[in-house]
């Protein structure tokens, strides 16, 4: 059998375009995979006493925050109350422990919820808070942990 000839336009234009698109897709997937480890560290404040929260307590607070924010759109008043009550008596070192317990969780800045694999990435607690809360509400978080100010305009 003789091979079927490929039209000149296909070999000249389509094959290189498909090759470049495939290379771009591989680069994008690689970038997304490597980017998942880039959760910023939040520093403890040596001026405050060490956190008295146990790992279980920090995890419970992190889960309470996640549950309040893992809804479509911004939190309603009840969910905001849960968020602020959860953070109310924490100093910066307590917050760091909760932040570490929260870790990186899937979040879509587009949908403002846990999202889907196409529009979401893993984000830290501060990113979740900065996108879920209004600027005024997030400013209150900045009083607990000064490093939160870096996230103020992330929304």
UniProtKB/TrEMBL annotation:
Q: What UniProt keywords are attached to this protein's entry?
A: Membrane, Transmembrane, Transmembrane helix
Residues that span the membrane, as ranges: 13-34
Q: Does the keyword Membrane apply?
A: yes
Name the UniProt record assigns to this protein: DUF4476 domain-containing protein
The organism's taxonomy opens as: Bacteria, Pseudomonadati, Bacteroidota, Flavobacteriia, Flavobacteriales
